């Protein structure tokens, strides 16, 4: 049983980590780091039997965990990841887990030198819609997939991390870029546009449009926004044999925010409702494809297996660094108005 402590109990820690650690095979929620009185109160209400610590240093000293998840604000993560690695703990770092590619490789080198596993929490590889599309591709229904379009719009301007260390590119961009690398493989060039707003904390990208050219010849087109009153998610894949199109209500996030937990009913968790099932269109006609199960807890189960067996983490630090290299290139592309080679 891998004992995992969670550092930070904001939206990430409360909704996207602790419930899935508790549901993951081979994992146990061993501790929570929280400091603000209202945050401590939330953690105690959600997890009354889990010890709460004022700092990562205190949780390490208590010896309650074998691994930690770092889900504090992005600009604080590097030092906490390094502190955990130095203490000999395995680490799951929330995305974006470093400020840029070079920072990511620094953390990767530190983990390897210490002999601990460092993984990046790219949980949206385990979205129901993405897993369904992956199954359609893996089963050969589309043949070679040469184009994927991905739109992830959320009507939640209050969740934008404003200022130069925040922005939507590092937030939702981390997810949609990682998803395309997962489906189509490495990226060779990037063309991007960022929509910037002057906020009190500083200039902030609040929406984006990105074109990725992949090494296998495919191309993907990604967009997202958080402040235009749109709440919509669509995947569109086009291959030599046909197409697949799906929309989603992001069922795992919806259920978590509604107070549900996967451990309450693991068998039923994470399926998109039937009205959201995607459509596969080929020479044989059109058919509806039932939803695969979305299971964010599978990330944690796979991470525990990695620690136990020495196999790579489900999303390695090197993989996370490649995603950051694409985001770095996207920002450069938007700034300079040209295509950037990764």
Describe this structure in words.
The chain is α/β, with parallel strands linked by helices and 342 residues long. The protein has two domains: 2-121 and 300-312, Rossmann fold; 124-294, Dihydrodipicolinate Reductase, domain 2 (2-Layer Sandwich). The protein is 35% helix and 28% strand. It contains ten helices and 15 strands. It has helices at 11-23, 37-46, 56-62, 77-86, 101-114, 128-138, 172-184, 251-257, 297-309, 317-336; strands at 2-7, 27-33, 52-53, 67-70, 90-94, 118-121, 145-153, 187-199, 202-214, 219-225, 232-239, 242-247, 278-282, 285-289, 340-341. α1 crosses α9 and α7 crosses α10. The relative contact order is 0.17.
Write the layout of secondary structure elements.
Blueprint: E1 2-7, H1 11-23, E2 27-33, H2 37-46, E3 52-53, H3 56-62, E4 67-70, H4 77-86, E5 90-94, H5 101-114, E6 118-121, H6 128-138, E7 145-153, H7 172-184, E8 187-199, E9 202-214, E10 219-225, E11 232-239, E12 242-247, H8 251-257, E13 278-282, E14 285-289, H9 297-309, H10 317-336, E15 340-341
Parallel strand pairs: 1-2, 1-4, 2-3, 4-5, 5-6, 7-10
Antiparallel strand pairs: 7-11, 8-9, 8-15, 9-10, 11-12, 12-13, 13-14
């Amino acid at each position: 049983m891998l004992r995992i402590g969670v550092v930070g109990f904001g939206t990430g820690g409360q909704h996207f980590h602790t419930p899935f650690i508790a549901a993951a095979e081979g994992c146990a929620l061993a501790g929570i780091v929280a400091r603000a009185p209202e945050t401590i109160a939330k953690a105690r209400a959600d997890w009354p039997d889990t010890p709460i610590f004022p700092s990562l240093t205190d949780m390490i000293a208590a010896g309650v965990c074998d691994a930690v998840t770092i889900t504090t604000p992005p600009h604080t993560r590097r030092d906490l990841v390094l502190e955990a690695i130095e203490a000999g703990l395995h680490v799951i770092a929330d995305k974006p887990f470093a400020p840029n590619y070079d920072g990511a490789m620094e953390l990767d080198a530190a983990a390897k030198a210490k002999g601990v596993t460092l993984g990046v929490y790219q949980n949206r590889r385990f979205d129901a819609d993405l897993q369904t599309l992956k199954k359609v591709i893996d089963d050969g229904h589309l043949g070679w997939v040469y184009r994927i379009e991905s739109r992830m719009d959320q009507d939640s301007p209050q969740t934008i991390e404003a200022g130069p260390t925040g922005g939507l590119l590092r937030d939702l961009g981390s997810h949609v870029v990682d998803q395309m690398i997962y489906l189509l493989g490495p990226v060779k060039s990037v063309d991007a546009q960022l929509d910037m707003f002057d906020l009190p904390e500083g200039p902030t990208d609040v929406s984006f449009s990105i074109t990725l050219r992949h090494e296998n010849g495919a191309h993907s087109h990604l967009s997202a926004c958080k402040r235009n009153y749109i709440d919509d998610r669509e995947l569109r894949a086009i291959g030599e044999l046909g197409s697949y199109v799906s929309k989603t209500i992001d069922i795992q996030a919806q259920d978590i925010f509604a107070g549900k937990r996967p451990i309450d009913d693991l068998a039923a968790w994470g399926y998109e409702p039937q009205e959201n099932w995607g459509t596969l269109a080929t020479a044989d006609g059109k058919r509806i494809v039932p939803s695969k199960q979305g299971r964010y807890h599978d990330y944690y189960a796979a991470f525990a297996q990695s620690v136990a067996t020495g196999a790579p983490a489900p999303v390695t630090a090197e993989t996370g660094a490649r995603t950051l290299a694409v985001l770095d290139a996207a920002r450069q592309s938007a700034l300079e108005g040209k295509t950037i080679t990764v």
